[in-house]
Give the backbone structure.
Amino acid sequence: MKQRIEKWEEHIYRIKVPVPFPLRWINSYVVRGQNGWTVIDPGLRTEQALEVWAGFFNLLEISIGDVTQSILTHHHPDHIGLAGWMQ
């Protein structure tokens, strides 16, 4: 799990969210702001992706309720599929 989560800066993380395509994963980013966490491109909704997100939330000891916004960079299912779940 650790290899899928990279800390870039004090409050910026990259999450490699798996996809069932030859691409293997998409990069999602999580940024902590003053009022909560922002998720950028949460990924495709699959069981494996949900496991990665659960691992991230457990690692940082936060909950899905701490996510205050999602940003979608473009309208592809592998980038937006979990947006509804994040809400």
Observations:
- The longest strand covers residues 25-33.
- The chain has a mean pLDDT of 92.
